[in-house]
Specification:
Layout: H1 3-21, E1 25-27, H2 32-49, E2 54-56, H3 62-70, E3 76-80, H4 81-89, H5 97-105, E4 107-109, E5 119-124, H6 132-135, E6 142-144, H7 146-150, H8 155-162, E7 171-172, H9 175-183, E8 189-193, E9 204-206, E10 219-224, H10 225-230, H11 232-239, H12 247-258, H13 264-274
């Protein structure tokens, strides 16, 4: 065998060895829903692959998580379609995420989990209106988070699409205070997120975004193509989670962690058992 072939064989063997010894690492961003989803992914992979899965949960924001994936510091993490389009790809809503992630980054955008955590305009359940078009007929005392106030697909989109009338300027506050503000009557509408845990417990409802002012924020797992190609069983395990969630279920999981202060590992394990994935 000539020297070139020997070197080629050694490179192949080293690459194969690296793939077999590489500990898969699951990442997440730095808020409850992401950490819960990351832990669910990690436990599910451990159950299916019968090997230890490393965790890098609570990494930070979108761009930090994306860069960690590109740097091979993590192998998979949950991402939102609207966030991927606006912050990562900087592309219009009709962009094919799966194709663009593969073309630009060699990353696999997997099938949606079943969660759509978009912006949600929330009012008391006693309010007669069902849609934002209906609600636009009267003025509102609006409470918003700092991000919603700044983003083009947040307050600006709400005003542009619906011409929502306001009673003075929106009251801007930390997200955790919005529900207390509407409960205490300081505001009568808040800009929340569709999977907030307390939505499942308080006497509130989400007004339908009937003119589609806000983009979809479907959650999918993003993984390194290189890993999925080398180890097809990893991709098969990840795909098992597709469609296993609903917004109501995610609200419940978030509530267990944020309000009931249950351990993330316990909540994740309970979800997998209930879904028949343990």
């Amino acid at each position: 065998m000539d020297r070139t072939k020997i070197i080629g064989c050694l490179i192949f063997l080293l690459a194969s060895c690296e793939q077999k010894t590489h500990m898969i690492r699951v990442g997440s961003k730095n808020f409850t829903e992401q950490v819960v989803l990351g832990e669910i992914v990690a436990q599910h992979l451990e159950n299916r692959l019968h090997e230890k899965i490393a965790r890098s949960l609570n990494l930070g924001g979108t761009l930090l998580a994306q860069q960690a994936l590109l740097n091979r510091e993590i192998d998979v993490y949950p991402e939102y379609s609207g966030t991927a389009l606006a912050m990562v790809l900087k592309a219009p809503r009709d962009t094919n995420l799966k194709a663009e992630y593969a073309r630009r980054f060699h990353l696999a955008w997997l099938e949606p989990l079943g969660i759509d955590n978009g912006f949600a305009m929330v009012v008391r359940r006693s309010v007669e209106f069902k849609t934002l078009s209906d609600a636009a007929r009267v003025p509102w005392a609006l409470g918003v988070g700092y991000e919603f106030e700044r983003r083009a697909d947040g307050l600006a989109a709400l005003k542009s699409v619906y011409g929502l009338q306001l009673k003075g300027s929106p009251k801007t506050m930390d997200l955790g205070l919005l529900y207390k503000a509407i409960e205490q009557g300081q505001v009568d509408m808040i800009a929340a997120n569709a999977t907030d845990g307390v939505l499942s417990k308080m006497d509130l409802k989400i007004l339908e975004d009937d003119r589609h002012a806000f983009p979809s924020y479907e959650v999918s797992l993003v993984a390194r193509e290189e890993l999925l190609s080398a180890r097809p069983e990893v991709g098969a395990a990840l795909q098992e989670l597709a469609g296993k969630f609903t917004n109501a279920k995610m609200q419940e999981l978030n509530y267990q962690v944020d309000v009931e202060h249950r351990a993330v590992g316990v909540v994740a394990g309970g979800f997998l058992r209930a879904a028949g994935l343990n």
